[in-house]
Write a structure and sequence with these properties.
There is one protein chain. The chain is mainly alpha-helical. The chain has a domain at 318-379: Leucine-rich Repeat Variant (Alpha Horseshoe), CATH 1.25.10. The protein has 24 helices and no strands. The chain has helices at 2-18, 25-34, 40-46, 52-63, 69-76, 81-94, 100-106, 112-125, 131-137, 143-156, 162-171, 175-188, 194-201, 211-223, 229-235, 241-254, 260-266, 272-283, 290-296, 302-311, 320-327, 333-346, 352-360, 365-378. Helix 20 (302-311) runs parallel beside helix 22 (333-346). It is elongated.
Length: 379
C-alpha cells in the first residue's frame, strides 16, 4: 500500500500548491480536509512556510481535520520550535481538549515562543486544568510569555485570577505586558474585574505621555458597560486631574444618560484638560447637552467658554449658529478666534454675513484670515 499512501501525499501537496490561487482555494481546502490523516504530513511540511497569509490557511485546514490530532500532539514535543509554536496555534483554533496535556508540557519548555503559543492555545481551549500552570507564566522572564499568559487567563473569565492579572497591570516593568493585562480583565466583562481596572486608572504609570497605550485600559473599562458608570462619575471628583480627565473621556464613550449632569459640572473643573475633555464627552449626548454647553459660555473663565465653543458645531441643533454668532461679541480676542473657527466647522449659511463683515476688515489681519478660511469651508 506504499504506492497508495505516496499517491495521497502527492495529491495533498498538489492541493496545497493550489491554495495560493484564490480561484482554487476553497475547493482545494475542502479536498484537503477530505483526505483526512493522509493530508497531515504534507500540511505539517507546509506549516514551515514564511508566507504568513498561507500559514493562516494551512492552520485553519489542519484544525478541521480531527484525525490530525495524534500526529500533531506527537510533533508538538519533537519538532523544531517554530513548527511546535504553529502546531499550538492549530490547537488554539481547533480547541481540541485531547491536546491539553501536551500543551501543558509545552508550557514548561525551553523556547519562549512555544511557551507563549501554548499558553494562548490553552486559554482558547478553556480547560480549567490549565489555569494554575498559566498563572505561573505571569512570572516568566520573557515579555511575550507574560503577555500570552495574561491574555489566556482573560479567556477563562475566572475571578480567582483577577488579583494575579492586576499585579501585572500595576507592577510589570513593560508597558506591553500591562496593556495585555488590561485587555485580559476587559475581556472578562466580569463586574468583579472593574475595581481592579479602576485601581489601574489611578496608577500614575498611565498618566504621562502614555495616553495611546492607555487606550487598552480605557477599552477594558468601556467593556464593563453600565456597571462602570457610577465608579467613573465618582472618579470625576478624584484629587488627580488626569484621573478626572480619563473618567470624563470614558463617560463620553459609554454614553449613559446618568453622566450628562456630572459631566456638565466637570466643565468648570480648574484643570484645563478636564474641562476640555468633559466638553468633548458631552457631544456624545447630542441635543441633551446643548443647554449645558450654552450655559457654560456665560462663565467668567475664558477657557471654559472656549471649550463649549469648540464642541458646539458637533451638535445637530438649529440654535447652534445663533449662539455662536452671539459669542462673536465676547470681549476676549481668543474666544473670538475660536468662534470664527467654530463657524467654519459648522458650515451654516446663516453665518455668512457675519463672517463676510469680519473678512472685510483688512486692518485686523488675523481675524480677516480666520474669517476667510471659515467662508471657504462654508462655500
Amino acid at each position: 500500500m506504499d504506492w497508495l499512501t505516496g499517491g495521497k501525499t502527492g495529491e495533498a501537496k498538489r492541493l496545497i500548491a493550489q491554495l495560493a490561487d484564490v480561484t482554487k482555494r476553497d475547493v482545494a481546502a475542502r479536498d484537503l480536509i477530505g483526505l483526512n490523516a493522509d493530508a497531515v504530513p504534507a500540511l505539517l511540511e507546509a506549516l514551515q512556510t514564511r508566507d504568513l497569509n498561507l500559514l493562516a490557511i494551512y492552520e485553519q485546514i489542519l484544525a478541521r481535520i480531527p484525525s490530525a490530532s495524534p500526529t500533531l500532539i506527537k510533533t508538538l514535543s519533537t519538532a523544531h520550535p517554530i513548527l511546535r509554536a504553529r502546531i499550538a496555534d492549530v490547537f488554539a483554533i481547533s480547541k481540541d481538549k485531547t491536546a491539553v496535556p501536551a500543551l501543558l508540557d509545552a508550557l514548561q519548555g525551553e523556547y519562549f515562543t512555544v511557551r507563549a503559543r501554548a499558553a494562548l492555545a490553552l486559554g482558547k481551549i478553556g480547560d480549567a486544568r490549565a489555569i494554575q500552570p498559566i498563572l505561573k507564566t505571569l512570572k516568566d522572564p520573557e515579555d511575550e510569555v507574560r503577555i500570552a499568559g495574561c491574555l489566556a487567563l482573560g479567556l477563562f473569565k475566572d475571578p480567582s485570577t483577577f488579583d494575579n492579572i492586576t499585579n501585572i497591570l500595576l507592577d510589570d516593568a513593560k508597558i506591553e505586558v500591562r496593556q495585555a493585562a488590561a485587555k485580559a480583565l476587559g475581556h472578562t466583562q466580569h463586574p468583579k474585574a472593574l475595581p481592579y481596572l479602576m485601581e489601574a486608572l489611578r496608577d500614575p504609570f498611565w498618566w504621562y505621555e502614555r495616553e495611546v497605550q492607555a487606550d487598552d485600559l480605557f477599552n477594558a473599562i468601556e467593556k464593563m458597560g453600565a456597571v462602570a458608570v457610577d465608579p467613573l462619575i465618582a472618579a470625576l471628583k478624584d484629587p488627580e486631574g488626569t484621573v478626572r480627565k480619563y473618567a470624563a473621556l470614558l463617560l463620553g464613550r459609554l454614553g449613559d444618560a446618568r453622566a450628562v449632569e456630572p459631566l456638565g459640572m466637570a466643565l468648570y473643573d480648574l484643570h484645563h484638560e478636564v474641562g476640555k475633555t468633559s466638553a468633548e464627552a458631552l457631544v456624545n449626548f447630542g441635543v441633551r447637552s446643548f443647554e449645558i454647553l450654552v450655559e457654560a459660555m456665560e462663565h467668567p473663565e475664558m477657557w471654559i467658554r472656549i471649550h463649549s465653543v469648540d464642541v458646539l458645531p458637533k451638535i445637530t441643533e438649529p440654535r447652534v449658529a445663533l449662539v455662536l454668532l452671539e459669542m462673536l461679541k465676547d470681549p476676549e480676542r481668543e474666544v473670538q478666534r475660536h468662534v470664527i473657527e467654530a463657524l467654519g466647522a459648522l458650515k451654516d449659511k446663516r453665518t455668512l454675513p457675519a463672517l463676510q463683515e469680519i473678512m472685510a476688515n483688512r486692518a485686523d489681519r488675523e481675524l480677516h484670515g480666520l474669517a476667510k478660511a471659515a467662508l471657504e469651508k462654508i462655500s
